[in-house]
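Let us work through a complete example step by step.
Step 1: write down the sequence.
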Amino acid sequence: MGKNIGNAIGKVYGPIKTSTPRAMRFHLTLLSLLGLILPLISATALTYKLQPNERACFFSQVTQKGSKLAFYFAVQSGGSFDVDYSVVGPEEKVILEGSKERQGDFVFTAKEQGEYRFCFNNEMSTFAEKMVDFEIAVENESRDAQLPSKQGTSPEQTSALEESIMKVSRDLSTINRNQKYFRTRENRNFSTVKSTENRIFNFSVVESGLMVCMAGLQVFIVRFFFQGARKGE
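Step 2: predict the structure and record it as tokens.
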């Protein structure tokens, strides 16, 4: 009975493979590397609706000097797709500043510990609200942590595995940036198409109204002529 059940399970799910000690060591090494690398990076990605005449600020805490700060933003919709921005350090020192920018992608080194302020300003707009996508990432470049040594794993293998993980991380970052770029273009093109569609509709309504007015005016003129001819008789 048990043998028949086992054969049935094997037919449905296929043979069950067990991990070899070498594969288990590889998985443990990979997990250890991910555990060491991931805590070094903290990122925040948000979408914020900026109201007319509004100034919104967001804050990021840096605990180590020399940390890398990455700041990305893109205006997805609203107005002329532009916004004023500024980045201010802990001592109220302006690090980055710009006006009427559609998007930006910056990386700079934090020279001081403390709170960094990232602000968007829409005071230039009286009626238009704007949708802004932005991301703030803090990366601590400390690479002093070492993987726990395991039997059968050489330092060369660990270094190669670490470089492979860093390469995958860079490739994923590139893919992420490309996705954001195409998303921004898609939103802007959609907004342009929607605006063009509204203009065509409004023009069609005005054109139809003018045609009705002209038809009514022609009928009125023809009736006026006929009425004048009857009075002349």
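Step 3: interpret the result. DSSP finds three helices and eight strands in the chain.
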